[in-house]
């Protein structure tokens, strides 16, 4: 695997970057700041394109829509805002949840936003219609929802109550897996067959979706009490995670051996990261700084 | 008669006779007027007033400024060549002729011009009472150089200033003339009239003069009438409001010396007149030395005499003694007013402002009021007891190991059995929050809804203790009450019991435990601790997770129904039939009103039961015997089947729980009770009693079930009928049936016929169920699922699922249901505990119902509905035939 180097470093001037997210095709990225603003960047050219202000508290997560025309963001002010990318104005503001929104996702067609909150609920928002109430609220979790992943027919929610729940719309079932540790982040492999769950005990666990069996465990990083995120690279060959030590770990998915260790900022927790959907390119956020990692050839 | 005639002939009449009035007729005061007479007309005979609806006052031609066109606004036009004349507009320009007529708003009539009118208004006008009343001062100052013609003429006539013109008159005549002074209005009282007294004085003095002397007549004195600008009585003038210093002006220009008043005091030749000078100058006080008064020679004496000396002496003396004129100094001084010192304040006196409000947080010595339900007067402890909480143990030193067993005790004591916690450590943490349990006894201690009627309260308590027996037998007290009263009371008790008992259930959704002691400084610590403590994971799961054996052990599947809109947005056909009742049906509607919430919780039985079970799952120590019984069913398939059989044979009370509409009204509860009794009857209780009961039931129904409920009621019955068909084969007669003829949409439906038809079918089905090796429930579900699939497939969108996939999915759903039935719900830990604890308690009918059971029953209900629809179809067929 080609060694990744820092392609760009951007100072976001957002106090702390809570989350960094590539857009659908990986040309742009969003950073959610503790300064209540969302910034849209072109990380490859290190350009700030737009700033979205309107939240009343720290923005904890944001995602762009499939056509990159809208942004959905969740904040500690308990509201979910749908933004218009070009005008920078909030299109809709949903206030249905009782506490901070920790994670927010669009569905595949960006017709529905799904947000998870500290109030233990996952709410479905219809962004197409004018409806202000959640279409559906999932109340199965007994503690904070830490992350949500949405596929074309499934919703994976991870919660502090040590359960990963997979809601399958097609068959109308909720499959909950007890993990035994607080799940700080959950992602899915691109083939949709595995979960990758970051646990608070300093491990990342790879589960088989169908059977719920543990396939692999990845160790070496330090989670402390951070809600570390993880990612799977574009080829599903590696698992990537940040660490409280400021490093970025690459593990081989099969052998679970650490193949690469990048250092963002030493001893500063590297929490949020986002992998490019198609290229070997990674965005990491640490404090006020985001870094774009990649192979030189890709850039050229 | 003839006499009368002759009389009339002889009578001579003058004038026109009055209308002869009938005896019946009451003489009306108002004379009858022709309608034409009732119109006011103007001089031209035109109608002056029109109705308000025809234009109001003088509408029409009459008020159009004299022309048919009416008034036109003036136009202003001005050019260089033709300058516009400045035209002044007058009010008359806008008036009609009528307005200017005698009775118009601006009447015009001929009159002599002012200067020729000969009226002396001009002169009179000169006298005014402004700041300086009388003749205008300026006119007095500025005199005309030449006398006016009138003055010259007067002089020629012999007039002099101060004496009138005319023949000289004698003194007596003069006085007489004065007396005949013309007075308008009423005369002033004799003594009040000015110049009367001095005149007489003069008379007496003048009488010495020659009697024959003639005098010029008095000059004409203009009698100035001043406006009455005060609100005093007529003729009364209060204290002069004019100058305070000097220049004393009485009314009519008379000065102080001449003014007559009742309050004139003469003292030793010196007139003490009472007149207001200023505030603070007493009426009887001597005149102040007016420092502003002009010094006058009259103030001095020019003659030497004793009197003056006396006066001076007196004055000196008076001044020395400091006594007012007319007063005498008292010979002995006034008695001293004794001085009493204020009483000493008591020691415990707390000063407080008289009007100061008492703070409501201030502690009071007064005992608390005892009124109403006593809700607001409860202490925290009482409330806690009410909610069934165990008192919070003192957490002074919970961390020390020695304290742990002691804190354990209260729970164990209260519950009376071992509370299952995962570990000792857990137990300790459990104690940090208040456990909630349900115990009727404690509640009855606190809640006395019938406090004002102790007997009733006693009965209520008895009722709470043992409802069944109470319902059956009653006690001595009850016999005195009439049947109706008794029924009423039972209903009342039931309501009260419902209201006050299940508080824990009602509130369970509202409150949650602080699952851990708040460790704000160490957030992750709390998280780590709580990770096993949600009641979600069974110990086996925890164990499996610890060992890393993920998979079957840690996985749990449960049905979940996505909202149709979610499916739509995800472009996925709705998974139909997996879980028949959607969440919406489960929960009626989220209402945030406390009242509606309370109500719904109380009345909505299965939601309530659900909350109960949910709550019991997490932490509470609810252990009513019934829930565990119901739970058996969910866990054990075979038992389930057995139960079904039991149902068929035995008419157990589980029937009560089936098919009830969600919202249990009082009536339904009552029905339930009656059914319970029916069971008793079968067990050998006297039949007559129950029949009595049902007679009462009818009475009750007739009272409490209004017509509006009739629509719902037959439906309910129908479902009951279905149940009958399902579950009791050989019930002799449906006693709970409403015997009243069907009304409304059910008027034409023959229920008996429907029933008989259904029963056959259902019997067959149940037989099949018996034969089936798998759970009957599951099969039912499957059937239903299939059916619903068929129904709902019409509503799907997106690409159609291939048939084989469909089948697979169905298969999956089947298995999932089976699995879900097999698998315990996430709270199964506690439920199991209960099972172990309860064993095979056989009491059945109670308000605690398991969620699962309800679900299955709902399914049944749906099924029965389906049957119903079938029947209806068949019915229609029959009809068409």
TrEMBL record, chain A:
Locations listed in the record: Cytoplasm
Example GO biological process: mRNA splicing, via spliceosome
Family according to the record: Belongs to the WD repeat MORG1 family.
UniProt cross-references to CDD domains, sorted A to Z: WD40
Alphabetical list of PANTHER family matching this protein: WD REPEAT DOMAIN-CONTAINING PROTEIN 83, WD40 REPEAT PROTEIN
Coiled-coil zones: none
Domain of life: Eukaryota
Pfam families per UniProt: WD40 (PF00400)
One GO cellular component term noted in the UniProt record for this chain: catalytic step 2 spliceosome
This protein's record includes keyword Repeat: yes
Keywords (A to Z) from UniProt: Cytoplasm, Repeat, WD repeat
Main location: cytoplasm
Chain's gene name: LOC113513867
Entry-linked SUPFAM superfamilies: WD40 repeat-like
Protein name as annotated: WD repeat domain-containing protein 83
SMART domains listed in its UniProt record: WD40
InterPro entries associated with the record: WD40/YVTN_repeat-like_dom_sf, WD40_PAC1, WD40_repeat_CS, WD40_repeat_dom_sf, WD40_rpt, WD_repeat_MORG1
Source organism per UniProt: Galleria mellonella (Greater wax moth)
UniProtKB/TrEMBL annotation, chain B:
Pfam families to which the protein is assigned, alphabetical: DUF1604, HTH_TGH
Record-level GO BP terms: mRNA processing
Biased composition (Polar residues): 614-638
GO cellular component terms attached to this protein's record: nucleus
InterPro entries listed in its UniProt record: DUF1604, G_patch_dom
Record-annotated G-patch domain positions: 146-166
Family classification: Belongs to the GPATCH1 family.
Protein name: G patch domain-containing protein 1 homolog
Organism: Galleria mellonella (Greater wax moth)
Lineage: Eukaryota, Metazoa, Ecdysozoa, Arthropoda, Hexapoda
